[in-house]
């Protein structure tokens, strides 16, 4: 397998197809890829305002009625649940759709389009990806939590109220936790690599949920060396990109601060209106910070998808299996 050739081809596919930029941007926006956060909080001179009794004048008792508060909480929970469900659906649609349009581009030289990306993803086969995640990751999380309880079992020795028992409890728990953490990380990494193949076996190969999982396992097992090399290369690229993103994020943050935060503070200082400051600061901040970061994250998602698509296609071809279009 030509691993460097795969990386070059994936980069070419990502750069030369603007429709994939849009799909990647939307995918990153709904949580398809790792985002960048950690915006420093302002610990300097900020808005200093002290509440007094006059701020609560005019508030009638019905305004703080517990029933009304509970109704608002329930409504907000329903809205949040709907939004999260919608984001999850769009995430899975794009996961399947982007993989299929990139597959068609690489194998049939078909130009990717945004419309086709959604059309290919809006299919019954996309639900197989959700079922795969439920079948694999839910039991994995459950087993991890249950074994974590076993790891913490030496802490029961603390009830003995004895220095020796306390030392054994702490040392035993720390040792077991380190071992547990290592096993969880290694297992999650292996499942994460396998997921690249069973998603594509379902979305591209059009295989059923269970068949896709089994065929992915056989592909990785029979070609472990090539898969491991590509995983290491992608890990190195991910570290390099993370390092490169640090100065980029700082520059974008500085621009957003100059164009959004500073004018917003001036508006508040001049008018003492938080609403006016928010009406300027929030839209401009979103435009100048979140949008560029999300766009870059989307490009990374598209590149990663294109890489693992080619790995999957080559391993399927090597195995003598047909990959559906």
What is the residue-averaged pLDDT? 82
| Largest sheet, strands/sense/barrel | none
Number of strands: 0
Class per helix and strand makeup: mainly alpha
Q: Quote the beta fraction.
A: under 5%
Rg over CA atoms, rounded to whole Å, is 26 Å
Low-confidence stretches: 34-63
- Total domain modules: 1
How helix-rich are the residues, as a percent range?
over 70%
How do the helices and strands line up, and which of them pair or pack?
Blueprint: H1 3-16, H2 18-29, H3 66-108, H4 114-121, H5 126-151, H6 163-203, H7 209-222, H8 224-271, H9 274-318
Can you tell me about this structure?
The protein is an all-alpha fold and 325 residues long. The protein has one domain (3-38, 64-318). Helix content is 77%, strand content 0%. It is globular and about 70 Å long.
How would you summarize what this structure contains?
77% of the residues lie in helices and 0% in strands. The two termini are 22 Å apart.
Question: What tags apply to this protein structure?
Answer:
mainly alpha, 325 residues, globular
């Amino acid at each position: 397998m030509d691993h460097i050739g795969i990386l070059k081809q994936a980069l070419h596919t990502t750069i030369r197809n603007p429709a994939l930029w849009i799909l990647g941007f939307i995918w990153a926006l709904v949580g398809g890829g790792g985002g960048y956060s950690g915006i420093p909080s302002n610990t300097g001179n900020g808005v200093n305002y002290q509440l007094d009794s006059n701020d609560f004048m005019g508030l009638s008792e019905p305004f703080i009625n517990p029933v009304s508060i509970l109704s608002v909480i329930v409504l907000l929970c329903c809205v949040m649940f709907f939004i999260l469900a919608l984001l999850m659906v769009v995430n899975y649609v794009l996961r399947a759709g982007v993989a299929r349009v990139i597959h068609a581009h690489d194998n049939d030289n078909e130009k990717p389009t945004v419309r086709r990306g959604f059309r290919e993803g809006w299919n019954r086969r996309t639900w197989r990806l959700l079922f795969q995640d439920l079948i694999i990751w839910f039991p994995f999380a459950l087993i991890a939590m249950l074994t974590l309880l076993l790891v913490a079992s030496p802490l029961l020795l603390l009830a003995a109220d004895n220095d020796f028992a306390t030392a054994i409890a702490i040392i035993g728990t720390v040792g077991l936790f380190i071992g547990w953490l290592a096993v969880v990380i290694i297992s999650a990494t292996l499942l994460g690599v396998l997921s690249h193949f069973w998603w594509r076996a379902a979305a591209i190969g059009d295989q059923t949920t269970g068949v896709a999982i089994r065929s992915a396992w056989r592909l990785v097992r029979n070609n472990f060396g090539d898969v491991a090399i590509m995983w290491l290369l992608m890990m190195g690229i991910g570290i390099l990109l993370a390092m490169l993103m640090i100065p980029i994020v700082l520059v974008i943050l500085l621009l957003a601060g100059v164009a959004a935060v500073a004018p917003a503070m001036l508006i508040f200082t001049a008018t003492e209106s938080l609403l006016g400051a928010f009406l300027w600061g929030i839209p401009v901040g979103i435009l100048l910070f979140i949008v560029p970061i999300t766009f870059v994250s989307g490009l990374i998602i598209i590149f990663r998808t294109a890489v693992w698509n080619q790995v999957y296609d080559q391993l399927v071809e090597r195995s003598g299996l047909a990959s559906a279009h």
